[in-house]
């Protein structure tokens, strides 16, 4: 009897194994061909299928419904910000904030500081001009008026890097090429406002802020031409002298354009912070006798005032809705600064992200993160890895914060002008990416059947700029629920 009870076991195991194989073979596999409207749009744009990676998976499905070149490492452009921001929301927490502290190193009596004022940054991505002004106003309200020592900038929360703003695209003054810094103020940008003065036939140029050492020369004249590209006939020349930079604007601007803004990245981080500090401090009636220099908070210094940033949820929203590269780079370095308790550094942050993904069971061997913003020639991820991360993110406790940070199709952010008056409008949260040779999207679509889908579409190559119709066709197709997702 004992023998008879045991003897069927090998046959049962074999039967179970064969049945499992049959079920596996019968299970619907991920589609390996792009839908016809998408393929047609790609062909019309002259984009080869080899330049495309696509992935579609229902957030509650076990397998993808579409995986096209999904394992191929590709440049994701700004969609890599989803990796950076999702990691930050989980590792730092949605309520994380940054603090910029002001210390006094010396004695303070009757408003006079016999010593140095030390500003210590922690990498705040949004220490805007308004918030920096509030910090200085707080110093004045606490009784400080005259600083007889130096203004010392403690930027040690991030490792010092030899940042070349011209490296990416040869445009060193573009605001998006500003490098990260532990004491980043106002994105290190000067906002030049061009105000037509029609009665004089001239243009007034107003810098905001105006660092104390910045000189501006202006000879721009007005024309009666149609607005069009208002900067096409303007020229900007930047000369750096011993006293500071001089910016010269010349050329012509159409009066029909009205007031316009040109954001420019000028000065080094210490020079910018020092120049803006002097300008604002003097406006408040304060004085600074010494120089501006780098340094660390001395042991005997006393905390005097603090300016706190908005919470991480607001930072993430700005990064993803408006694809802010400078803020993304700040957040990327913060990942290693906060989790490792070491100065923030790009390689440390890349390892931090990879370790975090591994702990979640997400192994992305092809992942390359240079600065976490997507403004990079070497960052890489596959469409499949991005898609699997989005599915995992949907089941995370920070999903509401991450999804709401993505542009809502046809309504806001970088998607506000796309797919208007179409069925998918308002039904998808999509992060976009764009470089000269890259077009990409990643995010979520709520299809017409009420199913949430994680979607990724990458295009690389010289014709990528013509790929938007194909991407839009993909989003329409997903919304229509053309593919069952299990």
Textual characterization of the structure:
With 486 residues, the chain is an alpha/beta fold. Helix content is 30%, strand content 26%. It has 3 domains: 31-95 and 312-479, DD-peptidase/beta-lactamase superfamily (Beta-lactamase, 3-Layer(aba) Sandwich); 99-162 and 270-308, D-tyrosyl-trna(Tyr) Deacylase, Chain: A (3-Layer(bba) Sandwich); 175-263, no CATH class. It has helices spanning 2-6, 9-26, 36-45, 81-91, 129-141, 269-283, 312-322, 325-340, 346-359, 383-394, 399-405, 468-479; strands at 52-58, 66-68, 73-74, 99-109, 112-120, 146-147, 151-154, 189-197, 202-208, 215-218, 221-223, 234-241, 244-254, 260-265, 287-288, 292-294, 302-308, 381-382, 428-435, 438-446, 452-460. Strands 4, 5, 6, 7, 15, 16 and 17 form a 7-stranded mixed beta sheet that branches. The longest helix is centred in the first third of the chain and has 18 residues, at 9-26. It is globular.
